[in-house]
Amino acid sequence: MRQLGAILVDNLEIPSMNVINDAVQSGERALMLAEFKLSLNSYLSELAITPVKSLSDIIEFNDKHPVKERMAEFGQSYLVQSEATNGIGPTEERAISKLNELCKEGLEKIVRANQLDAVVAPGASAHSLLAIGGYPAITVPAGYGSDGVPFAICFGGLKGSEPKLIEISYSFEQATKVRRPPPVLQHSAL
Fold first, then answer.
1. What is the mean pLDDT of the chain?
2. Element (H, E) at 172
3. Can you give the pLDDT at residue 182?
4. Domain membership of residue 165 as a residue range
5. Which of helix, strand or coil describes residue 60?
């Protein structure tokens, strides 16, 4: 990246990363569960043709079809926890306030103080940091391990930085030419 003209600022410390990375402590989990139910129920209620009209219907459907829905493998504990929520109440309001403060005093402060165009992190290591503030991110291939499995690099920024992130990630992709199409798998006839 330096060879392409980027100025890198290494090892920046985001305040309260231990809290940000703990979805319960940050309040992210409580808010996510409530918002998921509200959003999913709203979406499903607008569908013209669907066998399920609510999160409760999905849970019931999964219970009736455990093999087909692979319940032994995936379970549905988050769905059940989400269904138990009652919208945005005092707990969720506190979570919103805490997450806003973590964003303001964390990523936003670091980006502005260092005049950064983007933050760069390996793989999905910055997902919680970016997700709690609804910040944009682009993840692109960065290389392949010795076993041939791809790994990625993530470029994230503050709200409104999408054009710059697209420019940066595109430039990275063009300079590295790391991405290669996945292999075509041959399927046997049934």
1. 91
2. helix 162-176
3. 77
4. 1-12+115-178
5. helix
